[in-house]
Design a protein that fits this description.
The complex is a heterodimer of chains A (about 260) and B (about 325). Chain A has about 260 residues and is of the alpha/beta class. Chain A is built from ten helices and five strands, in the order H-E-E-H-E-H-E-E-H-H-H-H-H-H-H. Chain A folds into two domains: about 120 residues, no CATH class; about 110 residues, no CATH class. With about 325 residues, chain B is α+β, with helices and mostly antiparallel strands. Chain B contains ten helices and twelve strands. In chain B, the strands form two sheets. Chain B has an eight-stranded mixed sheet with strand order 3-2-6-7-8-9-1-10. A four-stranded antiparallel sheet of chain B has the order 5-4-12-11, with no helix packed on it. The chains are: A alpha/beta (about 260), B alpha+beta (about 325).
């Protein structure tokens, strides 16, 4: 069954209240689109770049009711990670994946896990190359690279807003009693923001790259969280979003941990 | 009526040299690594060749993203307060588009509304604008619907319109004449140039006066929450906007002293109107999106007698989820209250 047909069927049967996919936008770009009626489903298409999982934690979207959403592997990883972090109930979303031109429903977490088990995570070649280039730099060169890039940051928070794992209703950046991180977009404010975000996403980043895609001034900001995530994978053999069970390296305490400093 | 001249492409070298010799910084669109930015230049060959617009607007030149308003030191029983002085250097903005040039008036309306802001004014006084008309447009542009146009002169001190071999130069203000006086030989009198034929065709997308008249009745329409469902609530639109003027005041201090800073802020942020009580009058993204539209198309005209939008389309281009402003305004124009 094709996407539009499937969306109509789901909406008409009342199985879901909205279907989130993509539609053609300005100058041919694909943008997220919500269909809440069979008529609105006519505009939906499958191919878009964004990770639509970032919407499932929006208050306005939760209020719509059960949601079906077009999902790529990174979207599914984000959904599992959100389930693991108790931000999403298994039954509240219905991911739709494309298999041989047909839309398939992944009805529960187990189906998502099984689907993902057959899909290896690979970073885009361009990102892999830039990460390697950064890895080959001296500390000073790397510091200079990021200082230059971050000087362009305007702290619009498009990266945070586009990230499926940046769902906190009250982000550390917005805490003002005390003000942990300077609000203005000066050198320190920019640096501390992006460092905090990278640390908070280590082991949780599904490496969709949406933060980098969202940046209006073209900072490859996704490389910070990619690097943190790759480092967690290298050290602990884990990747975010592999399972709906919460078990990730940076915040799970085990009494039999081989490190002694934590005991 | 502006004085009309012809300026050859080759003469830009001499014009830039004359401006630099006069001690002025020249800011112009540059293009590198796929980024279109305003940067200091000294020669015309450093200016981007085939740009539409820069990503960020020229408002930075008068309203930077961070600005120090004052600083102080403190010791037991003593506070020493130091007013910050504006860091305003003589600047020529070269190559910004007519939409952006006209946006300074919208900033001026706020910064000189009741209190005259010395930081904004000091920078504006030092600023001259050599605008360049648009020979092409993209799908985000809608200047003609909001009183502008691809060759509109408002806000430019000199407006250049590209034509074969160089530019048609309209010298529009005293600041423009002061620039002309730096290199008078470069400006050759001309007449009979059909300026309209040199400009991009930007059809009028919607009836703005009718929309502005209708907005109060549309306040409770479900349209706004419907349109904003895909909005992610970031500040990209506000920060790239040449007229968005909201700012936050931040105090950065420790035991020995501190400083007060002004920084860009955005009505799209969920905490923008959050009260200390926990109540938020704009609790949903729909209410915040509506505020963005209403501020520009209803409250601005009501309070300042001008629009808070110049139709440049920067917000549309910068939006990670393609919240196309023109399209949403067209849609609002077609809805019956």
């Amino acid at each position: 069954m094709e996407l539009r047909e499937k969306a109509k069927q789901l909406l008409e049967s009342g199985d879901v209240k909205a279907v989130l996919g993509f539609e053609p936008g300005t100058g041919g770009v694909r943008r997220p689109a919500f269909a809440r009626s069979a008529a609105q489903a006519e505009k939906l298409v499958f191919d878009g770049e964004q990770n639509l999982a970032s919407y499932v934690t929006h208050k306005e979207v939760k209020r719509l009711g059960r949601l079906a959403l077009v999902a790529r592997p990174d979207t599914l990883r984000a959904l599992l990670q959100l389930m693991g972090e108790r931000q999403l109930k298994e039954g509240d979303v219905l991911p739709l994946v494309l298999e041989d031109g047909q839309v398939r429903e992944l009805t529960d977490a187990q189906a998502i896990e099984e689907y993902l088990a057959l899909t290896a995570k690979e970073l885009p070649a361009q990102d892999r190359e830039l990460l390697e280039r950064l890895g080959g730099m001296t500390r000073q060169e790397r510091w200079d690279f990021w200082q230059k890039e971050l000087s362009r940051c305007i702290k619009c928070y498009a990266c945070r807003s586009s990230c499926p794992m940046c769902y906190c209703e009250h982000c550390t950046m917005d805490c003002n009693r005390p003000q942990w991180v300077p609000v203005p977009s000066h050198a320190l404010g920019n640096l501390e923001y992006h460092m905090v975000r990278a640390m908070h996403l280590a082991g949780r980043c599904v490496e969709c790259g949406d933060c980098g895609r969202a940046c209006p001034v073209g900072i490859p900001i996704h490389l910070l969280t990619f690097n943190a995530e790759e480092s967690v994978h290298a050290q602990f053999g884990q990747r975010a979003g592999a399972s709906a069970k919460l078990d990730y390296a940076m915040s799970t305490f085990r009494p039999d941990d081989k490190e002694t400093f934590i005991r | 009526m502006a004085d009309l001249y012809q300026l050859s492409s080759a003469s830009l070298d001499a014009l830039f040299a004359a401006l630099t010799a006069d001690g002025r910084r020249i800011l112009a669109p540059t293009e590198a690594d796929g980024r279109s930015e305003l940067n200091p230049v000294t020669r015309p060959d450093q200016v981007a060749k085939d740009y539409l617009q820069t990503t960020l607007s020229a408002k930075e030149t008068v309203f930077p993203k961070v600005e120090r308003l004052l600083s102080y030191t403190q010791a037991p029983g003593q506070v020493d307060l130091v007013d910050a002085e504006p860091h305003a250097v003589p600047t020529v903005l070269f190559g910004i588009r007519p939409c952006e040039a006209s946006a300074f008036a919208a900033l001026d309306a706020v910064f000189n509304w009741d209190y005259r802001d010395k930081f904004f004014n000091a920078r504006l006084e030092q600023l001259s604008v050599i605008g360049v008309s648009c020979a092409r447009r993209d799908d985000a542009c809608f200047c003609t619907a909001v009183g502008g146009g691809p060759g509109a002169t408002k806000g430019s001190d000199i407006l250049l319109t590209p034509m074969a071999g160089g530019y048609l130069a309209e010298v529009l203000t005293d600041k423009g004449r002061a620039i002309q006086a730096l290199a008078p030989d470069l400006f050759q009198p001309t007449s009979g140039v059909d300026k309209a034929a040199l400009l991009a065709n930007v059809p009028t997308a919607f009836d703005q006066p009718a929309l502005t008249a209708k907005l109060p009745a549309l306040f409770d329409s479900p349209l706004w929450s419907e349109q904003s469902l895909r909005c992610v609530g970031c500040g990209a639109c506000a920060f790239v906007c040449p007229t968005c003027v909201c700012f936050d005041i931040q105090e950065e201090a420790d035991k020995t002293g501190g400083r007060r800073l002004r920084a860009w802020d955005s009505c799209g942020y969920h905490m923008f109107t959050l009260h200390a009580s926990g109540h938020n009058p704009r609790e949903t993204q729909g209410a915040r999106w509506r505020q963005r539209i209403y501020h520009k198309f209803s409250y601005y005209p009501e309070r300042y007698g001008q629009l808070g939008c110049v139709g440049c389309g920067k917000c549309t281009r910068a939006c990670p989820v393609d919240m196309n402003l023109q399209e949403h305004l067209v849609e609002a124009s077609q809805v019956n209250p």
